[in-house]
Amino acid sequence: MAIHTNNPDELAGKIFFGKYKPEKKLGEGSFGRIYSAINVSDGEHYALKMESRENGQNLLEGEAYYLCYLKGYGIPAVKSYGFSGSYNIMVMELLGKSLEDLFQENKKHFSLKTVCLIAIQMIDRLERIHNKHIIHRDIKPDNFVIGLNKKNNIIYLLDFGLAKKYRSSRTLQHIKFTVNKKLTGTARYASINALRGCEQSRRDDLEAVGYVLMYFLRGTLPWQGLKVQRKEERYKKIYEKKKNTTPEELCKGYPEQLCEYVKYTRNMEFEQNPNYDYLRNLFFKILEYSGVNINRCYFEWSKDNPIIFQNNINNNNQHEYKNEYKNENKNDGLKEESDTFSKELMNQHLLTTNNFNEENNNNNNNYNNKKYNYSNERMNTQFANYNTTIQVTENDINNNDLINNNNTTIENKYNVVENNDDNKNNYGIENNNDNNNKELNNNFFNVNSNTYNIENNNKENNKEQKKRKKKDKKDKDKSKKEKYKKDKCIIF
Fold first, then answer.
1. What is the mean pLDDT of residues 22-51?
2. N or C: which terminal CB in the chain sees fewer CB atoms within 10 Å?
3. Mean pLDDT within 443-465
């Protein structure tokens, strides 16, 4: 959402999650509002994005998960997410103005150099999220913003409320091509295939970037300003106008590389892997032909802060990273069946201190829970040539579940394992006569009887546990009915 106004709002003065206090309203869209907020505990400033829970769309939760998964260069960092009252709330990094705002402030004009620099960073951002198996589906100037202060030379991609997973992160299998889909995104910048009702993929994000760039150069697009009342008719008119506008007509009077970009993205297949290097190099060529020093490039709004490209430009203008997903774990926690992330993904990438301590404690307990083996060598007759090993734990010793003879202790499961090993344990008991053998046989059958008793006790305990679970479910159902009484927040 773009920054439009500094007018106060009815939420000003309230504190969310115990520390975030909204200061001023920055913008508003069809899905929610965004405010600047201050952390009253440390004085840091953040952006607070809000969405009504009453509409049932819950796009903000999905966006929070996507941002956590995609976190990195050019992606805003999320601080916390939760709900308060009738609003879902996400606290994230505070950024600067959107490209749309900067464009309007500059009287709807960007220089060719600025547009090329913008294009290179846009392609970088899309390559990153595409390599992470995600498509954005709402590319427009409002969703690209610059950083604050020294980061004003970095363009950030935000607003992932309409984002979608386009392939399996485990098998890399692409989603299937379908038609008769409703338009997702903004019609002015949407691809021709998206307006036609086709399932979107990487090609649609890249095609939309081409229309955004031509908007910055031309000031308007040929399909703007169509006088249509109904939304469906308007989409149809835009589709027809956009389809009938050739790349040559759209890019007339501008470098041929822009026309090549539009042609390439329009002609891509549904599952085709984009050649990001080729697309970036089109704009590097424009800069080179214009005599721009790539090592000292500036945006119009950051003349004292040069751009640092994320690519290593060598003699052939090759990009330093290719197919980033090959170097990452393919099983990244994304759901295979749906377009949104599971809540387990949040915990996977953003493990809290408490969970970390709990895991360490569990590991220590497992390590301390040592097992002692007691071996009996060569029992008579039916047990001849076998060793009987009885495994026990320290917990059983503490519970006095002991066999009186030979100071042996039985594990909860009381498993008797037969081994052909003739080696003696440090605690092994050597049987030298028939009397000792008889005692060992008695101990063995005592183990079986104890096992039977323990199993019966376990069954009773299981029944009690089932009853407790039923009660817990009832309590949870009651708590769900009491809506909006308490605030909940996930802290990252």
1. 87
2. C
3. 60
User: Do 115 and 89 share a domain, yes or no?
Assistant: no
Cα dist from 46 to 18, 35, 349, 488, whole Å? 14, 8, 21, 19
Q: What is the pLDDT of residue 54?
A: 80
Residue 482 belongs to a domain:
no
Question: What's the residue count for the chain?
Answer: 492
What is the C-alpha separation between 122 and 136, in angstroms, rounded? 12
Question: Cα–Cα–Cα angle for 130, 348, 76, nearest 5°?
Answer: 50
CB 125 within 8 A of CB 161: no
* More confident position, 91 or 372: 91
Angle (CA) 441 447 450, round 5°:
145
Domain-embedded: residue 356: no
Establish whether 339 is a catalytic residue: no
Of residues 169 and 376, the one with the higher pLDDT is: 169
CA distance 29 to 315: 44
Domain carrying residue 393: 369-466
Lowest mean pLDDT among 17-21, 247-251, 418-422: 418-422
Q: What is the pTM of this model?
A: 0.66
